[in-house]
Design goal:
iron; eight-stranded antiparallel β-sheet; nucleus; 4 helices; alpha+beta; globular; Alkylated DNA repair protein alkB homolog 6; dioxygenase activity; dioxygenase; binds 2-oxoglutaric acid; 277 residues; Jelly Rolls; four-stranded antiparallel β-sheet
Length: 277
């Protein structure tokens, strides 16, 4: 997560990161014709990973329509939402597969493909970057086919968050290490409110989105990515209520908080153009 001070020259950081990543790519290709090195230590072997029962799936998903799926077209623009994106049966298989990921023995270092308990927030997270096991590959391919990512900046980094019904995530931006587009898929039977607020007070309106479970998709880019922070509130209440700033359901709609897994998909510059194994 990036720090949220307003003093950061976000655009400069972003362009610097992009330039550095290009340079690393060039150096790496010149050296050994292989992709740049990345933090790959401790990847689970295929034996450690749970078996994927849906090995021969082809995942059919709807295309993102940047007009009809846009829920905030200005102030900030570029927030898109699809309530039904992943097929229901795939969501169930994926949930079961994710629950069986190995658990890291230590909480010190993030280990690829393992669940970690975050120290402060207590929620569980797991990361896949660069080379993906089958179910994650299906998701990245689906997001490309839906027109959300393209070959110039394919999905190469997946952050998985596992929340109890009361847990959330503090306001943050995803920062300049990534291409400025985030796609998040939600699994589970409940719903949650995702809040957007400007990094600089008053620069943009606050927005809220009700994220359904069972395979919904939210995509944000542009100002919503770089100039706004997003968050999910912690609460012990069973229900949250959508406010008038909510842009995909009427104010007053109830969100039933339940255990939830989200998959946040992005292109990280220092991992290069790899997409899958
Ligand atoms: O779980 C979500 O929907 C949000 C996740 C998120 O913002 C993040 O991991 O940076």
């Amino acid at each position: 997560m990036a720090p949220t001070e307003d003093a950061i020259d976000y655009r400069k950081l972003y362009l610097d990161e992009k330039r550095k990543a290009r340079q690393r790519n060039r150096e790496s290709i010149a050296k050994n014709n292989s992709p740049p090195s990345s933090p790959r230590d401790g990847r689970p072997t295929s034996k450690e990973l749970p078996e994927w029962s849906g090995e021969f799936y082809t995942l059919k998903v709807p295309e993102l329509n940047r007009l009809s799926d846009c829920v905030s077209s200005q102030n900030p623009g570029s927030i898109f939402y699809k309530e039904s994106f992943l097929p229901f049966h795939f969501c169930n298989d994926l949930w079961q597969w994710l629950e069986k990921l190995p658990v890291a023995a230590t909480t010190k270092n993030q280990k690829h493909g393992h669940w970690h308990n975050l120290h402060h927030s207590k929620r569980k997270v797991a990361v896949f970057d660069g080379s993906f096991p089958r179910p994650i590959q299906l998701i990245t391919q689906a997001l490309m086919e839906a027109g959300i990512f393209d070959e110039s900046a394919p999905p190469n980094h997946i952050l998985i968050n596992h929340y109890t019904s009361s847990q959330g995530i503090m306001p943050h931006t995803d920062g300049p290490a990534y291409f400025s587009r985030t796609a998040t898929l939600s699994l589970g039977d409940g719903q949650v409110l995702l809040h957007f607020e400007p990094r600089q007070k008053g620069a943009f309106s606050q927005r809220q989105l009700l994220l359904h479970g069972r395979g919904s998709l939210v995509v944000f880019e542009g100002d919503a990515y770089s100039q706004c922070m997003h968050s999910i509130r912690e609460t012990n209440e069973e229900y949250e209520t959508a406010e008038p700033t909510c842009c995909n359901v009427p104010a007053g709609t109830k969100a039933h908080r339940q255990e939830r897994i989200s998959l946040t998909v992005r292109h990280r510059f220092d991992l290069g153009l790899m997409n899958g194994d």
